[in-house]
Design brief:
mainly alpha; rod-shaped; transmembrane helix; thylakoid; ATP_synth_b/b'su_bac/chlpt; coiled coil; transmembrane
């Protein structure tokens, strides 16, 4: 804790501030600040992110299973349509003289309707997956940001005690006083 405090506060840096002051050396303090923030984000956000991703994965897998069931239903419908088609073809042999062209139209309509139905189901499945993925990404981003901010605030609040707070206020007052003397 003392090393962390010393990296932000430099004793004797400004003579007008007494024995307390801020370390304004950006190259010395920024890597420390960034490493603390990244450490807090990784420590607090990793578990939450894993849980969110696992939950999202389960929801996506459930959606995929539902889509597969819909696809299986469409395949069964296709098989029934093919059985019906075979039946229609057998009847076509019997009625070839009277209505061969009409039976062929019904056959094509049946195949086209089934293909269209399969295409719609496949498009619906793809749209659902894309939508769920985008929503999951958005939720994960929001949760990670929220957790990171909460973790950072908690860490800052736990590290800032009243003595350090009063020392910081005194140093800032000293800095403002010296700045006022310079401008006068």
């Amino acid at each position: 804790m003392k090393n962390l405090t010393d990296s932000f506060v430099s004793l004797g840096h400004w003579p007008s501030a007494g024995s307390f002051g801020f370390n304004t050396d950006i190259l010395a303090t920024n890597p420390i600040n960034l490493s603390v923030v990244f450490g807090v984000l990784i420590f607090f956000g990793k578990g939450v992110l894993n849980d969110l991703l696992d939950n999202r994965k389960q929801r996506i897998l459930s959606t995929i299973r539902n889509s597969e069931e819909l696809r299986r239903g469409a395949v069964e419908q296709l098989e029934r349509a093919r059985a019906r088609l075979r039946k229609v073809e057998m009847e076509a042999d019997e009625y070839r003289i009277n209505g061969y062209s009409e039976i062929e139209r019904e056959k094509e309509n049946l195949i086209n309707a089934t293909c269209d139905s399969l295409e719609r189901l496949e498009n619906y499945k793809n749209e659902t997956l894309h939508f769920e993925q985008q929503r999951a990404i958005s939720q994960v981003r929001q949760r990670v940001l929220q957790q990171a901010l909460q973790g950072a605030l908690g860490t800052l609040n736990s590290c800032l005690n009243s003595e350090l707070h009063f020392r910081t206020i005194r140093a800032n007052i000293g800095i403002l006083g010296s700045m006022e003397e310079i401008t006068d």
